[in-house]
């Protein structure tokens, strides 16, 4: 004689049946609730520690182009600067020498150019010999090269085109050189003080250009082995998003992680140096998502109860990700199907025949 030990489960089912039949009254007594299966766009892979960085080419070091003394510093650590903004002022006797060199080259060029213009028609008319014209042409070319070189040297040092033009038009030398930001950036470090003497190539300021931004992730080896193409990263709660562009090959022996790099296309308000937690996601490839409460486990396999006209069908599924609230499965369900999300323990007991005895 078999009798049911759980009064609520008046279910027409046998142990390990493929379907659990329920009447409307039984449904209500059990307090069953269902939810719809939805199509997944992407599947979470896990959360890993990360740090915001910048590409190497966005790390800029402002150095002293000449030896001299720092007479002004206009920025400090953490300041945002515009491209071309004055960062510091260097006073250098060497600058006077380079300016005088340019003035000398400029005067030589004007003399050579005047002589060339004067002798060109004379040579064309046969008044002067070819050898003299060739010598004139050679001097003009040498003077032009010397002028261009002297001007370029000042440009490399940081003199603007306007400052050089003022020097050429007025002939006034200036021992002070304004050091400007090469791009819109943030001051990461200030290494110099007012009054400090520096030599050529001494580092003065460390700048970082915060666009674009990278995200350096430390991914466990077990997770890194699952990474394929089109892996994306998200920063929960901040709206930041990016694409994985590099997966490292060396394992850190201390923590068994692999370095993974992502390019942030939506950096939100993230700043270089910040440490945070990032979430990795992969393409869904037909996977669906449903409430985590719908998935049960039995003998190391996963199942869900899919609603049918007679009750619920017991269907095996293959999970890709089981979170605290949401589950993602790659096989066994279709979008739009309804699954039980409440009283699943009672359904499982009925499915397995638990609660009956001879």
Summed up:
The protein contains six helices and 25 strands.
Give an overview in words.
- The protein has four domains: 3-41 and 286-357, Beta Barrel (conserved putative lor/sdh protein from methanococcus maripaludis s2 fold); 45-55 and 212-283, Efflux pump adaptor protein, beta barrel domain (Elongation Factor Tu (Ef-tu), domain 3); 62-92 and 175-208, OB fold (Dihydrolipoamide Acetyltransferase, E2P); 94-171.
- The protein is built from six helices and 25 strands.
- The protein has helices spanning 24-30, 93-124, 130-157, 161-170, 221-224, 344-352; strands spanning 3-4, 19-21, 33-36, 38-39, 42-53, 59-63, 68-73, 80-81, 86-91, 176-180, 185-190, 197-198, 203-208, 213-220, 232-235, 240-247, 257-266, 275-283, 288-291, 296-298, 301-308, 311-322, 326-331, 338-342, 356-357.
- Helix 2 runs antiparallel to helix 3 (130-157).
- The longest helix is centred in the N-terminal third of the chain and has 32 residues, at 93-124.
- Residues 1-17 have low confidence and may be disordered.
Mean pLDDT: 89
Write down the CATH class of the largest domain. Mainly Beta
Reported by name, the CATH topology of the largest domain is: conserved putative lor/sdh protein from methanococcus maripaludis s2 fold
Radius of gyration: 38 Å
State which percent range the strand residues make up. Answer: 35-45%
The chain-level structural class is: alpha+beta
Q: Give the strand tally.
A: 25
Shape: elongated
Helix content bin: 25-40%
Residue windows where pLDDT falls under 50 for at least 5 positions: 1-17
Can you count the helices?
Answer: 6
Query: In the CATH classification, which architecture of the largest domain applies?
Result: Beta Barrel
Tell me the distance between the termini: 5 Å
Protein name: Membrane fusion protein, heavy metal efflux system
GO molecular function: transition metal ion binding
Keywords: Signal, Transport
Domain CzcB-like barrel-sandwich hybrid: 62-204
């Amino acid at each position: 004689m078999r009798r049911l030990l759980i009064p609520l489960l008046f279910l027409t089912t046998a142990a390990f049946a493929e379907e659990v039949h329920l009447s409307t009254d039984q449904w209500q007594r059990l307090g069953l609730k269902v939810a719809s299966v939805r199509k997944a766009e992407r599947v979470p892979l896990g959360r890993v520690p990360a740090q915001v960085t910048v590409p190497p080419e966005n790390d800029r070091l402002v150095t002293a182009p000449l030896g001299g003394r720092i007479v002004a510093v206009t920025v400090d650590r953490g300041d945002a600067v515009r491209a071309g903004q004055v960062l510091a002022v260097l006073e250098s006797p060497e600058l006077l020498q380079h300016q005088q060199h340019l003035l000398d080259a400029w005067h030589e060029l004007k003399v050579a150019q005047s002589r060339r213009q004067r002798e060109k028609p004379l040579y064309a008319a046969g008044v002067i010999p070819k050898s003299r014209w060739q010598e004139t042409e050679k001097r003009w070319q040498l003077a032009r090269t010397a002028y261009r070189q002297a001007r370029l040297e000042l440009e490399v040092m940081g003199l603007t085109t306007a400052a050089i033009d003022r020097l050429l038009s007025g002939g006034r030398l200036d021992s002070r050189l304004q050091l400007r930001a090469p791009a819109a950036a943030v001051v990461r470090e200030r290494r110099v003080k007012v009054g400090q003497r520096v030599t050529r190539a001494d580092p003065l300021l460390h700048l970082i250009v915060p666009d674009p931004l990278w995200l350096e992730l430390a991914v466990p080896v077990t997770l890194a082995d699952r990474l394929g193409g089109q892996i994306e990263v998200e920063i929960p709660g901040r709206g930041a998003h990016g694409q994985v562009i590099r997966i490292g090959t060396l394992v850190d022996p201390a923590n068994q992680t692999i370095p993974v790099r992502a390019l942030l296309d939506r950096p939100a308000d993230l700043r270089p140096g910040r440490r945070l937690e990032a979430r990795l996601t992969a393409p869904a490839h037909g996977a669906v998502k449903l409430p985590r409460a719908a998935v049960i486990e039995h003998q190391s396999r996963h199942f869900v109860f899919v609603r049918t006209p007679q009750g619920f069908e017991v269907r095996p599924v293959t999970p890709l990700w089981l979170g605290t609230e949401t589950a993602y499965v790659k096989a066994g369900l279709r979008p739009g199907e309804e699954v039980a999300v409440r009283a699943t323990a009672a359904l499982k007991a009925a499915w397995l025949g638990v609660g009956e005895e001879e």
